């Protein structure tokens, strides 16, 4: 443990990094909302912004991941969403993040596995909320949603692997851990 | 650190199995999951699968279900709007005959 002053400096630094990451997430959410994916199926998304939370999970900073994810969901729902989209993304985001952290703690899987699990569970929870809100008809989307979860999860996992291998990022996060 | 761990492969396999199960489930319920409901005077007079060919004779109308499509074969009303609606097959589509108070709906 460092001294009192160093500790508070560390906390401020942490706060800054989280704020920065949350804003990066929101920009990604905005870019995503511009890409029309409705051609495939409504609700299919790339989920680039999830990459940030995943990266934090991989750096063993689960608190930070939860904080950044919640901030992202609340702010992006306020900016581009509706109460319904907030309900969708909040429930899905929290539950998928929980499973991602669980898998990370088990240490049986690499980033790819964590990412795919997160993406697939995210889509399943969204579908469950959709069934609850609109009825059973949406259950026909389940194959598309799971398939897109696997594909985008794999893509985001690879992206996240590149990020976590980056030396500069590593030095920032490992310094923060100490 | 290796790129792919053993757990990753397990995750991918589990996801793929889930995908196959979902496709199977959807195909299973899609086959007889779509019903044709016919209402006359606000009372349901017929409810059956869209994939079972049938001809239903009502008081003033005749509804035919064939090859996964439902249509009004004939009606004794003046405007014949219901007959001209054509064939319906998708969930939520309806044929309405206002003069005879008949509604054919796919559910």
Low-confidence stretches of chain A: none
Question: Average pLDDT across residues of chain B?
Answer: 83
Here the CATH topology of the largest domain in chain B equals mini-chromosome maintenance (MCM) complex, domain 2
Q: What amount of the residues of chain A lies in strands?
A: under 5%
What is the C-level CATH assignment of chain A? Mainly Alpha
- Give the C-alpha Rg of chain B: 22 Å
Largest sheet of chain A: none
Q: Classify the secondary structure makeup of chain A into a structural class.
A: mainly alpha
Helix content of chain B: 25-40%
Output the radius of gyration of chain A. Answer: 17 Å
CATH class of the largest domain in chain B: Mainly Beta
The end-to-end span of chain B amounts to: 53 Å
Number of helical stretches of at least 4 residues of chain A: 7
Explain what the structure shows:
The complex is a heterodimer of chains A (178) and B (107). Chain A has 178 residues and is mainly α. Chain A has one domain: Orthogonal Bundle (Arp2/3 complex 21 kDa subunit ARPC3), CATH 1.10.1760.20. Chain A contains 7 helices and no strands. In chain A, helix 5 packs antiparallel against helix 6. The relative contact order of chain A is 0.13. With 107 residues, chain B is of the alpha+beta class. Chain B has 2 domains: 33 residues; 73 residues, mini-chromosome maintenance (MCM) complex, domain 2. In chain B, the strands form 2 sheets. In chain B, strands 2-1-7-6 form a 4-stranded antiparallel β-sheet. Chain B starts with 5 loop residues before the first helix and ends with a strand. At the A-B interface, helix 5 and helix 6 of A face helix 1 of B.
